[in-house]
C-alpha cells in the first residue's frame, strides 16, 4: 500500500495543471467536506454514502459504502482523481484503480487536531489548493485559540458520557479514537475511561460513571425521541445527567468529522458543557 500511495502522490503534480478538467471522487465524509471547503466541491462527480455535507453532495451518484465499493462503479464515472480514507476502500479496489491510471490519494485519518490540519494540507496539495488549505488550517487554529480563551473562565470540569446510537437497536459508549476525543479540547473528561472505540452501553457502568452530561449526535438523539426518550434508556434517569436533563447534542458530521469545522464544533461543545460561559 505504501508503494501504491507514493507512486500516485508523485503523479499528482503532473495532474494538477489540468485543474479545470478535474473529476473528483471522494470516499469518507471528512474528505468530502474538506474538498468542498477548499472550493472544489463542484468538481466532485460522486462520493460515498457517509458524505452528507454539504447538502448538495447528496444529489450526486454514490459509490457505496466500504466493502460495497467496487472499481467498476468508480471507473464508470470517469474520475481523474480519487481521494479516499485509509482502510475505507478495499485494497484490491485501490489496486484496480491505479492499474486503470486513476490518480489516487489515500488519507490516514486520525481524530486529533494536528492530524486534521495535516489532512487538510495533504488534500490541498493534491488539488493544487495550497493557499486555501492554509487558510482553513488558520481558521481552525483561530477557533481553538478562542476556545481556550473561553475555557479560562470555566468553573467546572464535567464528566461526559459520549453516546453513539441508532435508535434503541444500537446504543454505545464512545471511547478513545472516536468523536469522544473532542472532550480533550473542551475542558471536560470522558465519564467512562479505558475503552477503545465504541462499546455497548452497560447499565451498571453507566450508573457507576454517573456522568454530568450525555453528549450525542443530533440524529441519534432524535432517533430516541429527544431528551425524554433518552431518559427511558435503562440507567440514564439515575445519573446526574438524567436527573438534571443535561443531555445535549451536536450535528453528527460536525461532531465526528474532525474536519474544517472542528474548531467550530469545539466551541459549540464548550458552551453546551459549560453553560456558565454562554453569558460571557
UniProtKB/TrEMBL annotation:
Protein name according to UniProt: Hemin ABC transporter substrate-binding protein
PROSITE patterns reported in the protein's UniProt record: FE_B12_PBP (PS50983)
Coiled coil, from the record: 130-157
Signal sequence, renumbered to the chain: 1-18
Fe/B12 periplasmic-binding domain mapped to chain residues: 23-280
Keyword annotations of the record: Coiled coil, Signal
InterPro entries: ABC_Transporter_SBP, ABC_transptr_periplasmic_BD
Organism encoding this protein: Pseudochryseolinea flava
Keyword set includes Signal: yes
Amino acid at each position: 500500500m505504501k508503494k501504491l500511495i507514493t507512486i500516485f502522490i508523485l503523479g499528482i503534480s503532473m495532474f494538477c495543471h489540468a485543474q479545470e478538467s478535474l473529476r473528483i471522487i471522494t470516499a469518507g465524509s471528512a474528505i468530502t467536506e474538506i474538498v468542498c471547503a477548499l472550493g472544489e466541491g463542484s468538481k466532485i462527480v460522486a462520493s460515498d454514502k457517509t458524505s452528507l455535507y454539504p447538502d448538495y453532495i447528496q444529489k450526486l451518484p454514490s459509490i457505496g459504502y466500504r466493502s460495497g465499493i467496487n472499481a467498476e462503479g468508480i471507473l464508470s464515472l470517469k474520475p481523474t482523481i480519487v481521494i479516499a480514507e485509509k482502510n475505507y476502500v478495499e485494497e484490491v479496489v485501490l489496486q484496480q484503480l491505479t492499474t486503470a491510471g486513476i490518480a489516487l490519494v489515500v488519507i490516514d485519518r486520525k481524530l486529533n487536531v494536528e492530524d486534521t490540519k495535516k489532512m487538510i494540507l495533504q488534500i490541498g496539495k493534491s488539488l493544487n489548493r495550497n493557499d486555501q488549505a492554509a487558510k482553513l488550517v488558520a481558521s481552525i487554529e483561530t477557533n481553538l485559540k478562542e476556545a481556550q480563551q473561553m475555557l479560562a473562565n470555566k468553573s467546572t470540569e464535567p464528566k461526559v458520557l459520549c453516546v453513539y446510537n441508532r435508535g434503541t437497536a444500537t446504543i454505545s459508549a464512545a471511547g478513545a479514537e472516536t468523536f469522544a476525543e473532542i472532550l480533550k479540547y473542551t475542558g471536560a473528561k470522558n465519564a467512562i475511561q479505558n475503552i477503545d472505540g465504541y462499546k455497548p452501553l452497560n447499565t451498571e457502568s453507566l450508573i457507576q460513571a454517573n456522568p454530568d452530561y450525555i453528549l450525542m449526535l443530533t440524529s441519534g438523539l432524535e432517533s430516541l425521541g429527544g431528551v425524554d426518550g433518552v431518559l427511558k434508556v435503562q440507567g440514564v434517569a439515575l445519573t446526574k445527567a438524567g436527573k438534571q436533563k443535561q443531555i445535549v447534542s451536536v450535528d453528527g458530521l460536525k461532531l465526528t468529522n474532525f474536519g474544517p469545522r472542528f474548531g467550530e464544533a469545539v466551541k459549540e461543545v464548550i458552551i453546551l458543557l459549560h453553560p456558565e460561559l454562554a453569558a460571557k
